């Protein structure tokens, strides 16, 4: 993944309730819709954005462009990292990352919210990887290809889980 400099990232933060208190889930999603990084903070400020971006850049390398919303914390963090020219802000440009929140919200409702920060961080880091593994984009392929990919994903999952 480090070799692909033409990748575009989409960054966003969302509110998550933790024992009635609001915390923030920061997510980085690449151009194909897979979640790269998830990070939980209590604050939604420059330091939180900087920590999140440093973590994502260290693990996945530097993308060609980073799409964000108009939150000033992103601009401040990008200036500090020296990526200010890579930032793109658009009204509907970050729909990719907004749609990546949906599976998380569905699972969150099924779990009846979260009670501890540690379990929320674990869930936020594991859930996207599992969802990416089993999200086979049924609408893009024919039935036979989908069945083959699903069988391969399940077989790989059984190897990993055992």
UniProtKB/TrEMBL annotation:
Transmembrane parts of this sequence? none
Q: Which Pfam families match?
A: DDE_Tnp_IS240 (PF13610)
Top-rank lineage group of the source organism:
Bacteria
Domain DDE span(s) in chain numbering: 7-135
Q: Which InterPro entries match?
A: DDE_dom, IS_Transposase
Name listed for the protein in its UniProt record:
Transposase
Organism whose genome encodes this protein: Novosphingobium rhizovicinum
